[in-house]
Phosphodiester glycosidase domain-containing protein
Amino acid sequence: MMRLLIVPLALTLVSCGDTPEGKPVMRTEIGSGVAEDIAATGAEPGQVLSDDPALTPGRPSACRTLMFEGARFTHCIADPASHRITTALGPEGGAPYRSLARLAAEREANAPPVAFAVNAGMYDDEGKPIGYFVENGNRRKELSRTEGAGNFHLMPNGVFFGTSGKWQVRTSDDFYRNVGDRPRFGTQSGPMLVIKGKLHPEISQDGPSKAIRNGVGVAKDGKAHFLISNEPVSFGKLARLYRDELKVPDALFLDGNVSSLWDPVSGRLDTGPAIGPLLVVELKE
């Protein structure tokens, strides 16, 4: 059964600098229809609502649905024991993909299987990153330490990066001062959501700006936790989910309103406005 959810547009959030976010993402899910009525489940905060075993021929999905403070989120876990994380902007020598659908369509047949993929931070009008971006060890954009408008410049912002299965989230200043070797992958976005176990000082408890939002955080066990809200939420709620429920000490906001997920096992491939850089979580062969 195919279900199409049209996500409402939030008017107040700015995605990339002063550029308003695009049209709402259309979420396409192909599956059994489990947990269609979340409100009727009586789930406790953080409780997994659907495992969808019928959607996992051969391997399970890395993503699950959970509730937190009355809102539904999709929670995807990358485990360094079984996953590899890469960044992707576009085909070699070509323009940015601008969508997960194009990434899926143009991915080489002999490439490692994709566990899931998400948008990886903020970008300019051409879909190119506005902050630090490393793909396969090649730096495509230098670290940005400038001030400006928009979420990216709500300091401190941060970098999600890694090499050989060691993944980290650090504030941009921490990264600049303490990371000497270029990582295998890296993407800069902002603001930080959680910094050393504390919420970003400029994030309010539950501000008026609500949007479909996604982020990434790395737990003490080294696993990367990716979240995307299934309904508009505040920065505060997303940050508290990382801090209070997932116990993630450092988490980074990736983007809002254009937030998108590709989960091949469940058949979910979000479509909508053009996006920029991507994070791809692959299965280790």
